Amino acid sequence: MYRNLKIVAIITTLIMVFVQIGGALVTKTGSEDGCGETWPLCHGQLIPKDWPLDTIIELAHRGVSGVAIIFLLILGYMAWKQIGHVREAKFLIYLSLSFILIQSLIGAAAVIGIWEGDFVLAAHFGISLICFAAVFLLTLLIFEVSHGQHERKIYVSPFLRYNTILITIYIYIVIYSGALVRHTDSSLACTEWPHCMPGEIMPENFYQSVQMGHRFLVGILAIWMLLILIHVLRKYSDSPLIKKCWITAFVLLILQVITGMLSVFTMVNIFIALFHALFITLLFGVLCYFIMLLSRNKN
Fold this sequence. Notes:
Elements: H1 3-28, H2 53-83, H3 89-112, H4 118-121, H5 123-146, H6 158-183, H7 206-235, H8 240-265, H9 270-295
Helix pairs in contact: 1-2, 1-5, 1-9, 2-3, 3-5, 5-9, 6-7, 6-9, 7-8, 8-9
C-alpha cells in the first residue's frame, strides 16, 4: 500500500545525505566561490563558459540541493495524503520543508555576501543536519506505518531519557565546533593526535584552539556515550530495540573519531573527511529517532 511512498522517502533521504556530504565537500575544497558572488546564476550566467573544479563542485552542490527541494515537496505531499493522520508526520513534513528552505537561503546569502563570518557560516551545516534528521525520521515513520509499528513505545528510566535528550543537544554543539574547524581553516592547525603539535599539549593560537576545542568536546562525548552504552547493556538486555539504537550510535561515534584522527594523519584526505561528516550525520539521525520513540511515552 505504501510502496511508492517508501521509494520516494528512501530516494529523498539519500539525496539529503548527498546534500550534507556536498556541503562538506564545498568547504573542504574551498569551492564556496566557485560561481563567484552570483546566485542562482553562476558567474552571472545560466551555464558558465569555464568549468574549473571549484565551479563544478559548487554547481553540483546547488543542483543536488535543488533536486532535494523538489523531492521533499513530493514526499511531503504524498506523506500528508497517506500518513497525515499519524502523530509525528505533519510535524516532520513542516520541519523538513522549513529547514531545506532556510538552508538554501543561507547558502544563497553566503554566496552574495549577505551572510558572512566563519562563526555564522558554521551554522549552515547544522541547519541542513536538522533537515536531514527530519527526512530520516519521516522515512522511518513511513516504514513503521507500513508494518503497523508507528505506535510502538519504549519504556526507559528517567536517567536514560534525560541523558539521551541532553547528549543529542550536546552532539549538535560538537557538530557546530567541527563545522567551525572547517570554516576557519583549522583542520591542519594541529599535526599530531590526540595532542596538537610535537612536544606541545596546549594550543598556542586561535586556529589550534578551535581544533583542540573540537577534540576536547568529542572526548567528552565519547566518555559520555560509553557510560550510557554500559548502562543500556546492563539495564536493557531484554530490549533489542534500545540496545540496537545505542550500539549503532556508539559504533558511528567510534567511526567518526577514527576518521577525525585519520584526517590529521592524512593531511585531510578528502574521502576520509567526507566519511567524517557522514558518520556524525548518521549518528545525529539515530539519536533523533530514539528521541522520537521516547516522545511516544510521556510517563
